[in-house]
Amino acid sequence: MPDVKCSVANCEYWSKGNNCSATSIAIDVDQHANADFGSEFAEDFNGHKDAASSAGNTCCHTFKLKK
């Protein structure tokens, strides 16, 4: 797993040093920002392909609100 940095401190997977502690990461393009992939998102991404014109056109579906 690569070193993934994240500054969203209210995410369940946020850890010290602005690191993401999720076991897998799901990133999609903004047009799918409201898609509900649920906590088992990996299977929903099979065969799913899009193209982003810049980093600003992407979003993280791994986010889970910290309780």
Mean pLDDT score = 77
The rounded Rg comes to 12 Å
Estimated structural class: mainly beta
* Strand content bin: 5-15%
Q: Write down how many β-strands occur, each being a DSSP E stretch of 2 or more residues.
A: 4
Number of domains: 1
Main pleated-sheet profile: 2 strands, antiparallel
What's the tally of helices? 0
Determine the N-to-C terminus distance: 25 Å
Helicity level, as a percent range?
A: under 10%
What is the overall silhouette? globular
Main-sheet strand order equals 1-2
Q: Provide the succession of SSEs.
A: EEEE
- Poorly predicted runs: none
Organism: Paenibacillus radicis
Pfam family, one: DUF1540
Domain DUF1540: 4-63
Protein name: DUF1540 domain-containing protein
Give me some keywords for this one:
67 residues; two-stranded antiparallel sheet; DUF1540; mainly beta; two-stranded antiparallel ribbon; DUF1540 domain-containing protein
What does this structure look like?
The chain has 67 residues and is mostly beta strands. It has one domain (14-60). Helices cover 0% and strands 15% of the residues. The chain contains no helices and four strands. The protein has strands at residues 14-15, 19-20, 27-29, 58-60. The strands form two sheets. The chain has a two-stranded antiparallel sheet with strand order 1-2. Pfam families: DUF1540. InterPro entries: DUF1540 (IPR011437). Residues 4-63 form the DUF1540 domain. This is DUF1540 domain-containing protein.
What's the short story on this structure?
This protein has no helices and four strands. By secondary structure, it is mostly beta strands.
